Amino acid sequence: MLAGKEQIMRIGIIGGGPAGAVAAAVLARRGHQVKIFEQEVFPRFHIGESLLPCNMPILDDIGISHEVFRAHSYLPKHAAFFEQAGSAKIARFPFADGLPGDPTSIYQVERSRFDKLLLDNAVAQGAELVCPATVREVDLKGDLPLIHYKTPGSEGQETVDFVIDASGRDTLLARQLGTLDRANDLHRAAVFGHVDALPLVPGAERGDIVISKKADVGWSWQIPLEDARWSVGLVLKRSAVVSGGGPADVFRNNLVHFPELAVRLAGRIPAPVRSIPNISYRIRGRHGRRYAMVGDAGGFIDPIFSSGVLLATRAAWRLGTALDAGGADADLGPWAKATDHDLATFFAFIRLWYDGHFIDNLFFSGFRTPAIYQGIISLLAGNTTNPDNQFLQMLKGRIAAA
Ligand SMILES: Cc1cc2nc3c(=O)[nH]c(=O)nc-3n(C[C@H](O)[C@H](O)[C@H](O)COP(=O)(O)OP(=O)(O)OC[C@H]3O[C@@H](n4cnc5c(N)ncnc54)[C@H](O)[C@@H]3O)c2cc1C
User: What are the pLDDT digits (tens) for 70-85?
Assistant: First the structure.
């Protein structure tokens, strides 16, 4: 039986996005036999382009250092900038003003390039990529997981000691096991795409993500991927998207709620405009005997604070580390607890964003102490565990009371 640090494990990973690629790199460089099954040939389009500073130590650890980012000309991100649509209210949170010890910068990334960089890195560390290969199902009934997959023109099977589902929003294992749960869905949907250069927002600096909030409507993002290529998107009530016509009509017609963005776009809209109709969902139980789900395959919350890639790669890094230390039968309870904590903390922050005026007062009216200001920045950077974070303590109180 495989167990313990000395054993080489056969690991099957479904999906080569950030979660799959990070888990693969962590395990492959420690000598495990890792196979990644990816259905799409990279580079491929993906949304989710603004990283958080706490991503840096994870990426650094697997070999994607600041030097690598710089060598690939990614745009540094030093702050998150918020504005209240239709008013003059703005708030800029520079990561350098956060709590001591937090990383102070990260990068904006065009995901087609970035995901390929991560996947190539996993292969360079020793993982094998099977691509294009679509996993159909995983037989979990036997002693060992058996992965059934399809490549163009053939079918294949692979027995592994442990299977990691990193299939993103396809949520392959959760669908197979019937554990996808939309009970806490915030009923939001998104329309988005890329445009050429946008003007710098007054008060913002080059590289900032700009988030505009419109009460009772939703929010919009502007992310500079390069100086002449920006990601723009609207997150709206799902009903507004579903009944609003095609994605381009929804985008164009809802710009009326975001007048500053409309002025910056000056009549342009992305081509194409893409849409995602269901943003958030939960998975009941993210692991079981010889399997675990990471990243979007293990649940997804609203992307307002750009937490997706961080939470995906952090869960993947921790899972790889736990499996390497404990073997295929490792106790994944502590891993699940840490992952649950990450998701619950950001979910509470997101609820505050949508509920009432609490966040508006904290963000836009300056109604906050220096300690709360630093704490907000620390969480915006992705640190969910700093015991000195007074804003986090406030959030925890709200989670406990909910
Ligand atoms: C509107 C919107 C805006 C967002 N903005 C941000 C942001 O600014 N910052 C941020 O950090 N996050 C953002 N996110 C979230 C981010 O996109 C995800 O959290 C992140 O991509 C998760 O990575 P992942 O590896 O889990 O999944 P993915 O990146 O989706 O990768 C999954 C991979 O699995 C492959 N796959 C799926 N099924 C199979 C199968 N059966 N067989 C083989 N391969 C399979 C897919 O082809 C894909 O390559 C946003 C999300 C949305 C919806």
Answer: 999 999 999 999 999 9
The CATH class, in words, for 10-73+109-183+280-345 is: alpha beta
The CATH architecture of the domain made up of 188-276 is 2-Layer Sandwich (3.30)
H-type alpha helices, 327-357? 333-354
13 lines ligand 1 (CB under 6 A): no
pLDDT in tens, 336-385: 999 999 999 999 999 888 887 888 888 988 778 999 999 999 999 999 99
Domain locations along the chain: 10-73+109-183+280-345, 97-104+358-401, 188-276
Q: Kindly tell me the burial class for residue 271, based on how many C-beta atoms sit within 10 Å of its own C-beta (0-12, 13-18, 19 or more).
A: exposed
Please state whether the predicted TM-score (pTM) of the whole model is above 0.90.
yes
| Ligand 1 site, residue 299, Cβ cutoff 6 A | no
**Ligand 1 contact, 213 CB (< 6 A):** no
The finding on whether 54 has its CB within 6 A of some atom of ligand 1 is no
Rounded to the nearest whole angstrom, what is the distance from the C-alpha of residue 394 to the centroid of ligand 1? 30
Query: What average pLDDT is seen over the chain?
Result: 95
Residue 376 C-alpha from the chain's centroid? 19
